[in-house]
Amino acid sequence: MFFPAFFASVEWEVSLILSLIGGFFAFSLAASSVYIMNDWFDAPVDRLHPEKKNRPIASGKIGSEKVFKLVLLFLGAAILLGGIINIKFAMILLGYFGINLAYSAGLKNFPVLDVMIISIGFIIRIISGGMVADVPLSFWIIIVTFFLALFLAFAKRRHDYLLFQLEGKETRKSISLYSMPMINVGIVISSFLTLLFYLLYTLSSSIQDRIGNMVPITTIFVALGLLRYYWLIYKKNVSGKPTQVLYDDRLLQLVIVLWVVSFGVIIYGG
Q: Does domain 12-108 have CATH number 1.10.357.140?
């Protein structure tokens, strides 16, 4: 949500910051409704998963009626808050929910299509951030976001596939239709394209003219972040929860902070 404004080197006025914070909470509410709904659809297979079986819906702590009420509550609050900020933003949130409803109801059972829909969800986040901040989005930020999300999604599928091989439990219907070589190729291609498009973004004339010729230096931190995640995928096998990986790995956190700081210094320090 905040990246489009950050990369556009806007003046951080109070009204803009408040709008982005409101947009952040609106999207978080919409995402919460999606996750609750998805857990309800996934409950039968989640009960076969060593960790997911303890989730409130899979364990039976929360029943279907309460799930329905929670989804409506979070989605309604998201649309209401989003509409206050920007009516088009509210429509995007509704569209985001619709895409994920289709995903949860059956599209997630198709290999490759499932990870592509997940990646599109992150593009919608970026578009929402640009709309709330009222800044134009470049092709580059959209394409880099897509392939980075695709990389993380394939890494997560690798974790699921290893679990399927070790325990024979099909924790998601599409996982048996994958193969380890296919997943590894997906990881390599998506990470390579993430780095390539990011480098092309930093070398583009629009960025060079607006920000300066020091921007390509930040590619170093993007490369280090991807390599660190590679190590976590293939050495530690902890890619099942990307957010948990970010919370737990101090070196990855440091690389991300250095990337943000270096970009910020180049944008606002010039």
A: yes
